[in-house]
Each structure stands twice: as structure tokens, then as C-alpha cells.
């Protein structure tokens, strides 16, 4: 009898793990089933398709990855290598990232210490990360003072806002002699636009609000962010490339990245089919409604993902703090650095293309 077509997958017969095995070999040889296999598929999707030069890659960040050091260890190398072209992050990730750029210390801690005792001793806890309360006060003072500068006294989107913040954090790094500690500073140097989908939901937003109370500081135009991010996706497609979305976690940043396609198709009336590549690292479940934005197949029904590209979608149910270092190590070993797209520098032209296509679609429908 002919062998069933379902028995053509790789035989599960790995070599024993050795003391000198590389991350690449570990993933290729031993990540063969369950979510380990999904992580291997994520590595293959990134290395073989998503990180090809013609693909524009948007990265979304939820939770608080930067206080755990993942900005320094993983995100900055990804930006510097050209593997990430634009970013949507929670404000928490960007605020706590700034601690590192200002030379402020975060420490390994424990979940077993009384928070009443920690409060009495002026120690703040993020799960098992400890830092002095003065870290918050110093970072707040930095932003409150910075946002009084003349160049912040106007309306702007969050990409421009974070670009300016990144510039000053980069200057502070240089003064302190600690380059490559801040993710925001690295994005500034690389021309990678950084957005936040909820600009009021962080200590950075709280400092903006404090200044607005006295008629100072920036006014954030979230509509500009919606159009700019949609424009980035359209630019990728119209210049002969593809669009890939790499999601760490879920939440508002995930939906903000994926809604770029409904914005193009449903609202602006522009002919489009959805993102070409979709990779999500998550520990949420779809059946409880907690997997924000849901699965790639559900995203097809919204026009967020190109239905023809469903085989090029991967969801890996694993903690991002475990997956991100492994994925980064795999990418750095397997994928040559890509030229920086410097999308921040081309925002005006990208927005103009979006506007012209929207006006043309409107004229055609009338």
C-alpha cells in the first residue's frame, strides 16, 4: 500500500542534545511537536519569508518587556539589523525603556516579598523585577522637563513624538557613555517609526496630561497615527513588496496594526487584500474572547489577513519572554542584516500616496 500523504512529515527521531549545541540546531532538531513545533514554524516563517528584503515588517509589543531587559537583549539588535521596520508598543514598554537610557537601575527580585514591606522601603515591583521609587520620579522629571521644549509645543502623531523623545534619550546615552540601552533611542537612530495605540495609558501620557493642564506640551493626534500606519502598509504593497505583522502578546497594539487593512479597504475604499504574513506569540486563548484580535483565520473575515496567505500565518502559544530571545538568536544566525528602510523619513510621501488613492477611490465610487 502507498504511504498516506499524512505520513510525509519529518520523522521524530532527534539526536541527543549535546553541551555545545547552537540555538539554531536546538530549534531545528528538537522543537518537533506541540508549541515547540509552532516556535520552529515561527522561525522558518521569519527566516524564509517574512524577513526577505521586500517585506515591510511591523512589530507590536504588549505587556512590559523592556523592564525585563528584552529591549536591550533582543529588540535593539532586531532594529539595528533592519529586521523591524515599524513598531506599535504600549506606553509602558516605552516608559520603562527610558529608565535604561537614563542609566537608572532595574534589579532581579522575587514574587515572595510582601508588597507592604517593599512600599515601606521605597521599592517598586513589576512581578519579579525590583527598582527604586526614585527611578519613577527621575523618569517623570525627565519627560516633564523635556516636553516643555519648544519643538513639543504643537500637534503631532505618536511617531513624531517618540522620534523626538528618542533623539533626546540618545543624547543622554551618549553623555552617560551607555549607547544601545534604549529601544526608543535605537529606533530614532534607525529611522524606525514607533507608535502607541493608547497614548494616554502610561506614565508618559500622564506627563503629557499634566503639561496640558497648564496649556503646555504636545497635543497627540491619534487620527494621524491611524492614517500613517495604514499608509505604511499601502506603501509596502504599492512598491512591489509585502506586509508582515509580528505580534508579541496581543491587546491594543495588535489590533492597531491589523486594523490598517480594514482602514484601507473598508473606510478609505482602496483595493487591498490584507497582510501577507502574520506571526503572533501569545499565551491567550480564543474561546474566552481574550485573544485580542483573534486568530489569523478570523482576521481573514475582517480583511486583515490575505486569505491566499493563510499558510504563511503562525500562532505560537508561549510566553513572549521565552520566545523573543530564541527567535532573535535564530534570526541573527540565519538571516543577513537588511538595509534600513527608514520609514520615518518618508512619512510625508507615504501619507500623500494614501490620500491620493483615497481620493481616486472616492471619485470612482461616485
Helix/strand layout:
Blueprint: H1 23-30, H2 34-50, E1 55-61, H3 70-80, E2 86-89, H4 91-101, E3 107-108, H5 115-120, E4 123-126, E5 129-132, H6 133-146, E6 155-156, H7 158-176, H8 183-190, E7 194-195, H9 203-212, E8 219-220, H10 222-238, E9 242-248, H11 251-258, H12 260-267, E10 277-282, H13 296-301, E11 313-317, H14 320-334, H15 347-365
Parallel strand pairs: 1-2, 1-9, 2-7, 6-8, 9-10, 10-11
Antiparallel strand pairs: 3-5, 4-5
3D architecture notes:
The chain has 366 residues and is of the alpha/beta class. The chain has a single domain, classed as Deoxyhypusine synthase (Deoxyhypusine Synthase). It has 15 helices and eleven strands. The strands form three sheets. A six-stranded parallel β-sheet has the order 7-2-1-9-10-11, sandwiched between helices. Strands 3-5-4 form a three-stranded antiparallel β-sheet. A two-stranded parallel sheet has the order 6-8. Strand 1, helix 3 and strand 2 form a beta-alpha-beta unit. Helix 7 packs across helix 8, helix 10 packs across helix 12 and helix 10 packs across helix 15.
- Termini, distance in Å? 62 Å
User: Which strand order do you get reading across the main beta sheet?
Assistant: 7-2-1-9-10-11
The number of distinct structural domains comes to 1
* Uncertain segments: none
Pick out its properties:
366 residues, Deoxyhypusine Synthase, six-stranded parallel β-sheet, three-stranded antiparallel β-sheet, 11 strands
Amino acid at each position: 500500500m502507498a504511504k498516506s500523504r499524512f505520513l510525509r512529515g519529518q520523522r521524530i527521531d532527534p539526536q541527543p542534545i549535546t553541551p555545545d549545541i547552537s540555538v539554531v540546531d536546538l530549534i531545528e532538531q528538537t522543537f518537533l511537536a506541540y508549541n515547540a513545533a509552532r516556535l520552529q514554524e515561527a522561525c522558518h516563517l521569519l527566516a524564509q519569508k517574512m524577513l526577505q528584503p521586500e517585506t515591510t515588517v511591523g512589530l507590536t509589543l504588549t505587556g512590559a518587556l523592556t523592564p525585563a531587559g528584552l529591549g536591550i537583549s533582543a529588540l535593539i539588535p532586531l532594529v539595528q539589523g533592519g529586521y523591524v521596520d515599524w513598531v506599535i508598543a504600549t506606553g509602558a514598554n516605552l516608559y520603562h525603556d527610558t529608565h535604561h537610557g537614563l542609566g537608572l537601575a532595574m534589579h532581579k527580585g522575587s514574587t515572595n516579598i510582601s508588597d507592604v514591606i517593599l512600599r515601606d522601603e521605597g521599592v517598586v515591583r513589576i512581578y519579579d523585577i525590583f527598582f527604586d521609587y526614585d527611578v519613577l520620579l527621575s523618569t517623570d522629571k525627565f519627560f516633564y522637563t523635556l516636553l516643555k521644549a519648544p519643538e513639543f509645543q504643537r500637534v503631532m502623531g505618536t511617531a513624531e513624538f517618540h522620534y523626538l523623545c528618542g533623539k533626546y534619550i540618545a543624547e543622554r546615552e551618549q553623555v552617560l557613555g551607555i549607547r544601545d540601552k534604549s529601544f526608543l533611542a535605537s529606533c530614532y537612530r534607525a529611522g524606525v517609526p514607533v507608535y502607541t495605540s493608547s497614548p494616554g495609558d502610561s506614565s508618559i501620557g500622564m506627563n503629557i496630561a499634566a503639561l496640558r493642564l497648564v496649556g503646555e506640551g504636545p497635543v497627540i493626534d491619534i487620527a494621524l497615527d491611524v492614517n500613517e500606519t495604514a499608509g505604511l502598509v499601502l506603501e509596502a504593497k504599492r512598491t512591489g513588496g509585502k506586509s508582515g505583522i509580528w505580534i508579541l502578546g496581543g491587546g491594543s497594539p495588535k489590533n492597531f496594526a491589523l486594523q490598517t487593512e480594514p482602514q484601507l479597504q473598508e473606510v478609505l475604499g482602496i483595493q487591498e487584500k490584507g497582510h501577507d504574513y502574520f506571526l503572533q506569540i501569545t499565551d491567550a486563548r480564543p474561546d474566552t474572547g481574550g485573544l485580542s484580535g483573534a486568530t489569523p483565520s478570523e482576521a481573514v473575515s475582517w480583511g486583515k489577513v490575505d486569505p491566499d496567505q493563510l499558510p504563511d500565518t503562525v500562532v505560537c502559544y508561549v510566553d513572549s519572554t521565552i520566545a523573543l530571545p530564541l527567535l532573535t538568536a535564530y534570526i541573527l544566525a540565519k538571516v543577513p542584516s537588511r538595509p534600513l528602510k527608514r520609514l520615518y523619513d518618508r512619512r510625508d510621501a507615504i501619507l500623500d500616496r494614501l490620500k491620493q488613492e483615497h481620493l481616486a477611490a472616492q471619485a470612482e465610487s461616485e
